[in-house]
Structures are given as C-alpha cells and as structure tokens.
Design brief:
The chain folds into two domains: about 55-260, no CATH class; about 280-390, no CATH class. The chain has about 400 residues and is α+β, with helices and mostly antiparallel strands. The protein is about 15% helix and about 25% strand. It is built from six helices and 16 strands. It is globular, with a radius of gyration of 22 Å. The relative contact order is 0.11. It has helices at about 215-220, 235-240, 250-260, 280-295, 350-355, 380-390; strands at about 5, 30, 60, 65-70, 75, 90-95, 115-125, 135-140, 150, 155-165, 170-175, 185, 190-200, 205-210, 240-245, 250. A hairpin with a 3-residue loop joins strand 3 (about 60) and strand 4. The structure holds heme C (2 copies). One heme C binds near residues 160, 216, 233 and 234. The site of one heme C (HEC) has 25 residues, from helix 1, helix 4 and helix 5.
Amino acid sequence: MAVALAVALSACGGGGGSAPPPAPVSAAVTVEGGEPQAASGVRVYPAAAAPQKLSAWRVVASDGATLALGDRVVPYALNTPLFSDYAHKLRTLWVPPGTQIERTASGPLQFPIGAVVTKTFYYPKAAAQTPGALGARRIEQAEGGETIDLATHHLVETRLMVRQEDGTWGAVTYVWDADQRDATPVRSGQAIAVELVADAGARTPFTYQVPTDRQCVDCHATNATTRRFEPIGPQARHLNRRYAYAGGSVNQLEHLSALGLLAGDATGAPATTVWNDAAASIEARARAYLDVNCASCHNPVGRAAATGLWLGADVVAPTSLGVCKPPVGGAQYRRFAYDVQPGDPDASFLYHRLTSYRPNSEPPRVAMPELGRHVFDAEGNALIRAWIAAMPPVCP
Ligand code: HEC
Ligand code: HEC
C-alpha cells in the first residue's frame, strides 16, 4: 500500500559534526511509500502511519544510559500540569525549520503543519517490594533539564502528537522497551504494575494504565461533538514561566521567541497560577488545578458538558463551578446535595469523587478524573479541600 508520508525536512545537516550548508526546506513534502528523505533532524509521519519505533521520529533518543533530545527540540513545562499518578514528565515541542508557532489572544498556541509535541512519562527509581512491579519514588518533580539520567529514572511511555497535512492533530503513544533504548507503539492500552514508594516509607502498589487511542481522544477532544484531538497544555498562559535549560534558566516564551520559533511579542502574557505556589491564593491555585485537570471534559462542549459542571479558568458563575449546584449524575450518591457545599468539603460531591480512589478496587466510574488517574493526588486533593473549606457556608 502506498502510504503518503508527510516529511518535514530538516534544514540542519550534521550528525557527524561538520554540518553541510542548510538545504532548502519544504515544511511538508509528500512521499509515496518508502522512507522519509531527511538526512537528520526530526522526521514527521501521519499518526496512522507511525513508525514501529519511537527513535524513527528523532525527537528523543536513548542509548540506555541517557534520554536526550533531538535537533531543535525544545523542552517545556507548564505552570500547573496534569497530575498522572505521580509520574514525572518531560514535554517537548518541535516545529519544521522555517515555520513558527503563532500566539492567539486566548487559548491554544497555533502550531504549523508538521509540528510535533511529545510528553515522556517517567519515574525516579525506587526498590519495589511487589514482585514484578516497577519501583517508583514518590517525589515532586523539579522542572527543568534537557536529559533524563536512566541510572536513576525509568522511562514508561512517550506520548506524541503531530500536526498533519490536513491541519488535524494525530496522536500515538510509545511504551518504552525493557532495555530503555527505544519504545514501541501501543494503540489499545497496557497495564503496568507500579509501586509508589514515599520517602517516609509508605508503599502504594497500583496499576498504571497506558491509555487506549480512544481514551486519548476522550481527554483531548475538548469538543465532544467534533471529537478532534487538540493539544491542551501549549497555551501562552501555561508556558509563561521559567525553565532551566542546559544554557540557563529563562522564561519559556522569551526563549521560544529568541529561537525564532514563536511569532509576536512574548512579553506581557498572563500566567496561569502555579498550583502549589504557597505565595498564591488558594482560590487561584484551585482554579488552575481544576482548569488543567478537569476542564478538557468539564466545559460547555466537552464530554461532561451535560453535568453543567464547568471547571475552566474562564468560568465565573459559581453554579457552573458546582457551588450549590445539585449533581445530575450519580443516583447512588443522593446524599450529596451539591457538587460543592460551600465550607464543607466532606459534604461536597466534587470532593468525594476526587477522594474515591481505592487503587485497583473501586470502579473508576466514581473517581474523577475518570481517566488517567489510579492513585490519590494527596496534595491536589488537599488544595481542593482547602478551597471548598474557605468558602462562606451559605447557598443563595
Ligand atoms: C486524563 C486525560 C488525558 C488522557 C487520557 C490523555 N491525555 Fe494527553 N494530556 C492531557 C492533559 C490535561 C494535558 C496537558 C497537561 C500536561 O501536559 O500536564 C496533556 C498533554 C499531552 C501532550 C502534550 C501536549 C498537550 O496537549 O498538552 C501530548 C503529546 C499528549 N497529551 C498525548 C496524549 C496521548 C497520545 C494520549 C493517549 C495515549 C493522551 N495524551 C491521553 C490529558 C490527557
Ligand atoms: C475524561 C473526561 C473527564 C475528566 C478529565 C473529568 N471528568 Fe468529571 N465527569 C466526566 C463525565 C463524563 C461526567 C458525567 C458522568 C458521571 O457523573 O460520571 C463527569 C461528572 C463529574 C461530576 C458530577 C457532576 C454532576 O453535577 O453530576 C463531578 C463532581 C466531577 N465530574 C468532577 C471532576 C473533577 C473535579 C475533575 C478534575 C479533577 C474531573 N471531573 C475530570 C468526565 C470527566
């Protein structure tokens, strides 16, 4: 079968040290069948024709000792990230040479055709007691860096999305092979036994779930009708923070501008509150947390639209945030009068659903988010608890 491969050619030669002068670049060249032509640099494929090894994209590379980034691949972090079972994450973006990311007044950045965004999930290593489980140290990630030391960290999966020639985003996840040198696509999910080990000694065995292709869309299609896969994190306000690059710590938007990858003025953008920044208000921190962790489904056109519980950063109506709003679902939970009972977290359906995780037992149907989380986010839950507790205990 002749599959049309969109190939982004790299302007950079190299690989051997003495780089030939940059070749003319076409952002997306269609090749019938066969291998991409670029000699080096990131290569781009439609997600449906994703190669059988992650290394073929040349976004990240591992020699079994270190994970490193490919040519012109830029790491980034978010002010407030998605919680995923205490996994650490290395996020990257890459755009074809000669193209730029455009900023929009609000909402996601506009990426050029051929752009590739990845997120690698990994854990700091710990000694597990559960036979066959991956031992994972439960510790807050210190954002920054451009490599991962595999002597002390274990790679789990690298999720990848690519802006295809027709403008849509395609996505695929690659699960890292046992030898940690490359990763293989997994389309229909995979269960991985993990044991979280807290420094104080507590051990939490749980089953980490690599999402299915369908589950990727369940979270990433922020519009449940079109079900188009969209990026969630890359928005100016989420990226407006410093990152410790190999060359020093600078603001991410300014860094992208300086590299010529981001069009327009990078200064003066709003910044999402950092969810665990003790200097920020509980209100702002909780709203940032709910925005990133919940609003991809809990928005007026999302998967959870019918609940009327909308948790995006732009929502102002208290009822939309669940305050004094009766739950629409969950008949077995009629004892909860409201999603959020002001001043009383334990009487709030929203808090109940955040704390309903019993690893590997209680149906995920009760727990929220309904995907991507298999253990409590103790710190996140404490934040939401504090947010509800601080509300004046009255309903209109
Ligand atoms: C539980 C919901 C959820 C599921 C399931 C999910 N994602 Fe995401 N994903 C997110 C959120 C929220 C972000 C942004 C926040 C962050 O990066 O911490 C994100 C970020 C990403 C990113 C970085 C760019 C971006 O959109 O921010 C990639 C790439 C990605 N996801 C790919 C995938 C793929 C591929 C799958 C399926 C294998 C998948 N995701 C499944 C919620 C989800
Ligand atoms: C992957 C999509 C998805 C994500 C992400 C998600 N939810 Fe939900 N949520 C749903 C769906 C679908 C429903 C409706 C069905 C149900 O009640 O289980 C729902 C229902 C709820 C309800 C009941 C609301 C009502 O009025 O009946 C609460 C409370 C809730 N979610 C809280 C959250 C919180 C808090 C987060 C983030 C920490 C979150 N959800 C993230 C899909 C999601």
